[in-house]
Amino acid sequence: MRIIELDPADENLVAGTLEVERAAHAVDHPEGPPPHEGVFRRSLVHPSPDEETVRLIAVEDGRVAGTCNAEFPTRDNLHFAGATLQVHPDRRRRGIGSALLERLVDLARGKGRTEITIATLSTWQDGPARSEAGRKFLEKHGFTLALTSVNSRCAVDALDPDRERALLAVAAEAAGDDYEIISWIGRTPAELVDTMCRLDSMIISEVPLGELDLEPEQIDAELKEAKAVRNEAVGIVPVTTIARHRASGEAVANTVIGVFDDPDHRHGFQWITIVDPGHRGHRLGLHVKLVNLRLLREQFPQIRRIWTDNADINSHMLDINTTMGFEPVDAALEYKITLDS
Ligand SMILES: CC(C)(COP(=O)(O)OP(=O)(O)OC[C@H]1O[C@@H](n2cnc3c(N)ncnc32)[C@H](O)[C@@H]1OP(=O)(O)O)[C@@H](O)C(=O)NCCC(=O)NCCS
After folding, report:
1. Claim: this prediction has a pTM higher than 0.85
2. CATH architecture of the domain formed by 154-327
3. Which terminus of the chain is more exposed, N or C, with fewer CB under 10 A?
């Protein structure tokens, strides 16, 4: 068995890596959105603009047996590395995961990183049973639990229309005339880029991180543009609704659902929802989410279900999601290890 870096031009190995992801999905997380071939392939040649991405693969008898996708931030959090790791279900318990992990650790050390995080799934409450393999594997290798997130799903029409209208009316009344709701699909309108950078730069300091040691990211217009270009190249379309504070002109609440540019793909992904701490208590979180959901239904009727994940301690967000009809499925356990510097 060899561990190599995946060459995006090697069709056999690219197809083999996708096959590992598909096989692992079918066994580990069958309820969740399956890997999307187009997005997977395009991501290999269009990495995120603020991360160096390394895709390691384990090759055994000419076939891909396991894969590890490592991301190294290049602007902020230079001490950090995040990774996913999967071994084909037919080839587990033969040391392949350990070999990939060992290479990942070497790579991270070589880049001067001192913290690596890897997530694995776990059963949540009375949801579908998940294997304990990931957890046991990571603990065996010295990782410790840093953050537990709950993965939830919601049908786009989970709310009864009357109930949805009533919730929207309550949220609109709580906001009064102080806020303007603005939505768009795709790129951020030019006149909102600076204020959206301000709000995006708050995210890491405002979301619960558990034991993860992360510093806030500084998002500027250039990075925002580069991310938008990358989304377009990969085939990811952000659907966004914000609340703008009329008096200051600042965006103070934001929610984004990501969809794939594929009329046959049925899943959307609820990414960030954030309300500026100075503007909480006006139901802006629920407000922007309900408006965004309506926009999604109108513009992307093929999307039937939305997925999201929230820290288990993020009770405000979980409450909003429950109100909207999200139901928990399983948990993502974020494990970390600290390396000597
Ligand atoms: C977790 C995963 C990557 C492990 O890959 P693997 O190639 O089977 O792992 P290894 O053979 O290197 O296992 C190393 C050690 O981890 C532990 N381990 C791995 N799988 C285990 C299981 N099912 N039950 C208990 N311990 C397990 C054992 O201590 C094992 O050593 P041993 O076989 O000598 O007892 C694989 O099960 C997988 O792809 N799971 C789904 C994806 C996932 O959860 N990824 C995130 C976690 S990295």
Report:
1. yes
2. 3-Layer(aba) Sandwich (3.40)
3. C
